[in-house]
Structures are given as structure tokens and as C-alpha cells.
Amino acid sequence: MDYDKKLELALKELNAKGNNISDVNLKYAKTLMRFGFRLPPPHYQSFWCNLVSSGSSFGVIWGALMWFMLWEPAGKTFVECLTLMVMGGALFGLLNASFYRLRRKRLGLSTWNELGK
């Protein structure tokens, strides 16, 4: 089964189980598709995939903003900033991945591989 059909089935399942953020997941998937990625919505990704993808993207964006707005004017070293950026990204990624794992279990969602079978 191709990615588009699986994505449609996943969003239908999310809506049927009472998830109220499935249209956000559709926008997320469409954005990734524009860049050539074919990742499932976060509810269907593994814990580690959610941890790495959300943690790294948050860490880079948050770290860059903090560098220009607070850390560089305050005289923090690059190593200090990099450490804070990694720690912030790891914490955010851990919280986000935990949220999606718990949400998937509470809703009783099937796995990405089980969709369409």
C-alpha cells in the first residue's frame, strides 16, 4: 500500500478514535512531503523517531533564537550554548515522544504497518 493511502487510513482512524488534532497531523505530513519525507503522523511513529525528530528540530530553532536574543549578548560561550541547546532539545523530544506514545496507547491505535491489512 502506498504512503498516501496509509496516511488517509491513519487520519480516518485518528478521527474515529476521537482525536481532535488530526488536521494538524495532515498539515505536518503535507509539509514533510514537500521536502521529500514520507513519515507517518507522530501517533504512528516510534518513540525514538519522535524523540529525535522533535528534539533536534526544537533544539536547533530554540538554540538559535536564544543565542541571538539572550546568550550572545550575555557573553555565554559556544560550548555552554551548545550544551543548553542539546539539553533543551532532549527534554522537549522526551516529553513529546512520551505524549505521543501515551496518546497512541489510550486511543488504541493500530501500528503504521497494520494499517490497510
User: Distance between the terminal alpha carbons, to the nearest Å?
Assistant: 9 Å
Biggest sheet character: none
The chain-level structural class is mainly alpha
User: Helix and strand succession?
Assistant: HHHH
Count of discrete alpha- or pi-helical segments spanning 4 or more residues: 4
Shape: elongated
Helix fraction, binned, reads over 70%
How large is the radius of gyration?
Answer: 17 Å
**What is the averaged pLDDT score?**
88
Q: What attributes characterize this protein structure?
A:
single chain
Q: Any overview of this molecule?
A:
It is a single chain. This protein has 117 residues and is an all-alpha fold. The chain has one domain. Helices cover 73% and strands 0% of the residues. It is built from four helices and no strands. It has helices at 3-16, 22-34, 47-74, 78-107. Helix 1 (3-16) packs antiparallel against helix 2 (22-34) and helix 3 runs antiparallel to helix 4 (78-107). It is elongated. The N and C termini lie close together (9 Å). The mean pLDDT is 88.
